């Protein structure tokens, strides 16, 4: 579905991505891990066409991103940045239906079908009860569900999420992690998300790509990555591994 080939990007004279190459297939949940400044957000922005690579190429469904019409690409993909603007006093349903914008004509307005899609997206995110509430009345976890529903309202094939688990409490982190898996399984989309929480990233993902200094340091299935010696080498901390429902779970050593 998505191919990143020898791609590099720099902010001024600071290299953010260095000759990155990887392939992401269809119907997959892929986690991007790594410390702050390792290139996760930059890679997602390049995939979302928020910025353009300085060298290399990124291809979606066999075509370079530069060849895609902006509207056509927006109909196929959805992107949720780390800090979506939640300052406007808008109802959740109005926020979510705005995700249908790529499918409207130039001066078109949302119709019954668009609102039906928005409500279905809220339902998928277990957020129907938030539909008539305003963003500034919600908790951070509730707003994240609304903004994820906005992405889903367009039924994209590729969903790009920048640290969607950040600032969530344990219960919402658990719920949101499971929700990402359900989105992949129910919609057959591919979801790529950045996360600092290795345990929850590994719990439901098919694959974890570890970034380090703007390059791919590892690309492994969770069971292989979540080993104390591997985590020590890649992330520099000591941990013990326990089994939770047959999956490895890391506990940092005190």
Could you give a short description of this structure?
The chain contains nine helices and twelve strands.
Structure description:
It is built from nine helices and twelve strands. It has helices at 40-47, 70-76, 92-97, 112-124, 140-152, 170-187, 198-204, 222-225, 228-235; strands at residues 2-11, 14-24, 29-33, 55-60, 63-64, 77-80, 158-161, 190-194, 207-212, 215-220, 239-244, 247-252. The chain has 254 residues and is an alpha/beta fold. β1 (2-11) and β2 (14-24) form a beta hairpin.
Topology, pairings included?
Blueprint: E1 2-11, E2 14-24, E3 29-33, H1 40-47, E4 55-60, E5 63-64, H2 70-76, E6 77-80, H3 92-97, H4 112-124, H5 140-152, E7 158-161, H6 170-187, E8 190-194, H7 198-204, E9 207-212, E10 215-220, H8 222-225, H9 228-235, E11 239-244, E12 247-252
Parallel strand pairs: 3-8, 3-9, 6-7, 7-8
Antiparallel strand pairs: 1-2, 1-4, 4-5, 9-10, 11-12
């Amino acid at each position: 579905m998505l191919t990143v080939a020898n791609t590099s990007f720099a902010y001024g004279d600071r290299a953010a991505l260095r000759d990155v190459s990887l392939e992401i297939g269809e119907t997959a949940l892929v986690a991007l891990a790594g410390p702050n400044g390792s290139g996760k957000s930059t890679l997602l922005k390049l995939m979302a066409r928020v910025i353009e690579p300085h060298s290399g190429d990124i291809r979606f469904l066999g075509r370079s991103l530069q060849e895609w019409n902006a509207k056509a690409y927006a109909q196929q993909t959805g992107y949720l940045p780390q800090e979506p603007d939640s300052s406007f006093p808008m109802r959740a349903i109005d926020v979510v239906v705005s995700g249908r914008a790529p499918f409207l004509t130039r001066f078109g307005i949302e119709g019954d079908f668009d609102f039906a899609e928005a409500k279905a997206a809220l339902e998928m995110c277990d957020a129907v009860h938030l539909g008539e509430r305003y963003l500034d009345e919600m908790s951070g976890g509730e707003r994240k569900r609304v903004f994820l529903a906005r992405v889903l309202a367009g039924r994209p094939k590729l969903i790009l999420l920048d640290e969607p688990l950040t600032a969530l409490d344990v219960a919402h982190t658990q719920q949101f992690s499971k929700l990402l898996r359900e989105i992949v399984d129910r919609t057959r989309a591919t979801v790529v998300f950045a996360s600092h929480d290795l345990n929850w990233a590994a719990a439901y993902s098919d694959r974890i790509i570890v970034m380090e200094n703007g390059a791919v340091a590892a690309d492994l299935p969770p069971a292989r990555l979540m080993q104390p010696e591997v985590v020590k080498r890649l992330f520099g901390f000591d941990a013990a591994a326990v089994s939770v429902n047959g999956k490895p779970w890391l506990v940092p050593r005190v």
